[in-house]
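Replying to the earlier thread about multi-chain prediction with a worked example.

Input:
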Amino acid sequence: MTDIVLYFATMIGIYTIAAIGLNFQYGIAGLINFGVVGFFAIGAYTSGLLTLAGVPVWAGLLAGALMAGLVSALIALPTQRLNVHYWAITTVGLAEVIRLILLNEDWLTRGSFGLVGIPRPLDAIVPAGYQTAAFCGLVWLLAIACYLALRLLVSSPFGRVLKAVREENDLALSLGKPVFSIKVRALAIGGLLIGLAGALYAHYLTFISPADFLPTVTIIIWAMVMIGGRGNLAASVVGVAVVTVFLNSTRFLKDVIALDPQMIASLRMVVIGLLIMAIVVYRPDGLFPERKKELADGDTHAGR
Amino acid sequence: MATPMLAVERLSKSFSGFHALQDVSLEVAERSIVGLVGPNGCGKSTLFNCVSGFLPFDSGQVRFRGEQIGGMAPHRIARLGLVRTFQNGHATKRMTVLENMLMAAAGQTGELPLQALLRRAAIRTQQTAQLGRAREILETLKLTRVANEYAGNLSGGQQKLLALGRAVMCDADLIMLDEPAAGVNPTLVREFVSMVRDLRDRSAKTFLIIEHDMKFISGACDHVFVLSAGRNLSSGTPAQMQRDPRVLEVYLGKRHAAVA
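Result:
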């Protein structure tokens, strides 16, 4: 029982980091990134490969996050003239390209065999029996740190410019804001978090392969953000919890519903699709929409 | 004569063969309020877009305080002190009026993420000062009551006022207003005119205003340029323009102009 609770807690923590990264890009800055899984994969493989080569895990996590952030920023350069929707389509393609590189460049990535035996952090210092709990604690520590940093950013002048870019690109330009470089930064910050989540995922499962990074992962993380509430970072954790518990429910449902387990597994994605449609139609801002920021005189609690 | 604040010389712009602007020239002197009028489709908004950097133009020159600004990116032009508004007001649905004002402030600390994380104390002091200034501006624009409302929920007229407020908050020296009176009730139009004149008289702002509302033009402007079919048609004081047969012709048609 403790095992399953720890499993859920850890996965929810990992996906929360990715979801708030996406929510920052989409909910705050209005950037529609449909390539989430690509950056997740970059984080996972970067950290996985480096630590397998002997680099300490903390450095691997950092490198995974930085690499994903860097690639996020770089894709902005050739795509800066695309409008919102074409840009979104481009990101789908980008994530697929990344997966195919991981699958085919087997001199580096071991192709479809994937990476096996990725070390877990803390295993060396934490006594046996407490290691999964310690990992879960590390994940949540990082998730909370990421959340607090993003909150500071959202309530800062940077965050206000991002929101202006989200609402009316030309308005921000007309008031002297360097919109393109602001977007690049928002992409990089979101990518950083998504990459960190991917790296944690690799170290948690200790085995990854390109099959872990199918486009469905992007859809799942989008569903988490949309259910929680766009622009409301804290609410993302609710969306993550709902979707994570649901996705793992097939283990239990097979005893209740008289269907082939494989069919139940496929039906999950159908339900996720229906859930996204229901949210778009009935609650387009999610269960907990972005709250209005009322500024009072003497409100010096910027960012709190 | 002193260098004009804004000088547009023989500006031309065509869209796949259609000449939207042909050799259009105009000048805006510092601390003046200049109107830009003409029938729909005569190129007024295109001229605004070219001057403010949102649209590249084919030939001609644009100088702001003597400096060439043709070809510059719109945000760089804005930073020099030339800020334009948009015809539709560009309402920000999910940002309050105060958030709009703070966002508009020029040269802020914390517009870059690392600064935003590390220079918390400086940002807090800055925000207190900005809030005070924003509230002062909103007071003169009579927007205090809606300061914490989403800008998207304001009336059309209030959104035009907010656009003016953002330009002031952004430290603009030349403010280009695109149809500030369109869809605004007559009482508010009169108030808008006096606000614009106040800003010129007390805060040394300069204005270039696209407008169809003749009451606005004659109430606010010192000088008017009239465009027709992408060319300069005439210019002079508002009173002169209202008597100019060429201007009456494009607005009312030839026969009516003869009668008038």
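The first helix of chain A runs from residue 2 to 28.

Feel free to reuse this layout for your own posts.
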